[in-house]
Design goal:
Helices cover 46% and strands 9% of the residues. It is of the alpha/beta class. The model has no long low-confidence stretch (mean pLDDT 88).
Length: 224
């Protein structure tokens, strides 16, 4: 079975892959080498802020003799320029979110194929940032947090029943809301530690019940 590499934006997504996705895939019978890989930026650090950084990160994988399957976990709301993704200006004109994401995924595929024609690349632009998943079941996921914090999260869920609609603006994104909630209760929300702990307590099955599988990219990975 081919190896699988999941290219992610940063430490939070990498922790999510290592602690949540890999055990889940293994439990579903995907028993192969699975590895998360962060996009490395010029001068250090990680993130998806320049298509050239992404291409530099993926390029070595394209030359592996065993031709691994490569996919991505990149938040579409964070893509906001041609510098990050060629053809962004055209994609953003799509009013329908799914059509917009499909356009972005095709652009990312084109960027990979500009390096080398590669048949085992599966572009996956995620509809929402990872922190959206933490709203799947606050009663369970936030059970170790202060009651006041859990209640504030529950209030958002009552106001916005479909958690995928929480990620509507840069200012109102789930991560920004959680940072503000924790700050208002004199605590700090650390995404790659607290966030993944909450996702682990929530459970991947619960998350999948509240998030369209297509929007998490799992529909493509189960074709492997």
């Amino acid at each position: 079975m081919k190896h699988l590499y999941i290219i992610v934006e940063g430490e939070t997504e990498l922790e999510f892959v290592n602690r949540i996705l890999i055990p889940y895939f293994n439990a579903k019978g995907l028993n192969t080498q699975i590895q998360g890989l962060m996009i490395t930026m010029k001068g250090g650090g990680h993130g998806f802020n320049n298509i050239e950084h992404f291409k530099k990160t993926i390029k070595p994988l394209l030359s592996y003799e065993n031709e691994p399957i490569i996919t991505t976990m990149i938040d579409h709301y964070g893509i906001n320029s041609e510098k990050k993704l060629p053809n962004y200006t055209s994609c953003i004109r799509e009013i329908n979110v799914e059509n917009r994401i499909s356009c972005m995924e095709q652009s990312l595929t084109n960027a990979v194929n500009s390096i080398k024609e590669y048949r085992y690349f599966i572009a996956n632009i995620v509809r929402h940032e990872m922190e959206t998943l933490l709203f799947a079941n606050p009663e369970k996921g936030f059970e170790l947090e202060k009651d006041e914090i859990r209640e504030d999260v529950l209030k958002i869920c009552r106001e916005i029943p479909n958690i995928e609609d929480i990620n509507c603006t840069p200012q109102g994104a789930p991560s920004k809301r959680l940072i503000q909630i924790y700050k208002s209760h004199n605590q700090k929300f650390i995404k790659d530690v607290v966030g993944v702990d909450i996702a682990e307590l929530t459970g991947i099955e619960t998350i999948l019940q509240n998030v369209h599988v297509s929007n998490l990219g799992l529909k493509n990975l189960f074709k492997l």
